[in-house]
Amino acid sequence: MELAYYPGCSLHASSALYDEQSKLVLGRLGVSLREIDDWSCCGATSAGKASEFMSVAMPARNLGLAEATGLAEMVIPCSACYSRTLVAQVRLERDPSLKAEINAELKKRAEGRIKVSSILEVLLARIAAGALEGQVKKPLTGLKPVCYYGCMLSRFPADVEISDSVENPQGMEKTLAAAGARALDWNFKTDCCGASAGVNDTATALKLMTRIMKDAVARGANCFVTTCPMCQMNLDAYQKDFCARSGICERLPVYFITELLGVALGFDPIELQLDRHFVDALGLLKELKLI
């Protein structure tokens, strides 16, 4: 099957490994990705702070480009890009005058003909279709992950229909279970990590990350799993700092869901770019004889 693919800015920059992993893993599960031509930034969280109109217009342009492919579905791995694009599509549908105003300036109009899916929705659909059967080379036995969804997959600035619970999402847990790992229950799966406040309000962001880390450690987790590039970057890049400030001795690798699925599918860890983390992501997997 072929899906339109919107990587977004992070997957072409700081989280380029996530882009490569998504292509590898989804390809193995029978999904061909067609990156939409000439895509642009969706506005992420900053556009809405500057202009409500631009927070819809920016993702609307990408929606128009995706619809022009003629494909029925677009997958967006980044949680922020997914949230922004899905909300924009809903707002265009509910506000005909706004839709007309934005489409008047677009070469490729956003008409609402394409399904916008998160990477978890696509993975779960492929697993339900049996695409993972016989493919798991290294069951993720011994992993004790906590699934960290963060804000963007659980809280939307509009009433949108999604396939998972916003209070206790289970998409990552189900995906990992299909690969042989049992995720731990915990209290902070939808809490905010501070997002971009890590840059402009570091003290607040570090405080939020510390709370997340403390609960994960208290539950006996040996790693985090996420789908959000910002969440992954914050908990990975700042972990040494917030742990040192709070007297936390443990260090937990922060994996993208695609990394762990890639390991289970037998991909080489260097091909998955597991060596590109701030917190060692290879040691735990070697200890558990998963690589």
Can you walk through the features of this model?
The chain has 291 residues and is of the alpha/beta class. The protein folds into two domains: 2-121, Glutathione S-transferase Yfyf (Class Pi), Chain A, domain 2 (Up-down Bundle); 137-287, 3-Layer(aba) Sandwich (Rossmann fold), CATH 3.40.50.11810. The protein contains 13 helices and seven strands. A four-stranded parallel sheet has the order 2-1-3-4. The protein has a three-stranded parallel sheet with strand order 5-6-7. It is globular and about 55 Å long.
Keyword list:
291 residues; alpha/beta; Rossmann fold; 2 domains; 4-stranded parallel sheet; 13 helices; 44% helix; 9% strand
Report the span from N to C terminus.
30 Å
Helix content: 40-55%
Architecture of the largest domain in CATH?
3-Layer(aba) Sandwich
Please report the first level of CATH classification, the CATH class of the largest domain.
Alpha Beta
Query: What strand line-up does the widest sheet have?
Result: 2-1-3-4
Strand content: 5-15%
Structural Rg: 19 Å
Number of domains: 2
The tally of beta strands, per DSSP, is 7
Major sheet summary line: 4 strands, parallel
Summed up, the helix count is 13
What's the average pLDDT? 95
Query: What fold name goes in the CATH topology slot of the largest domain?
Result: Rossmann fold
Backbone structural class: alpha/beta
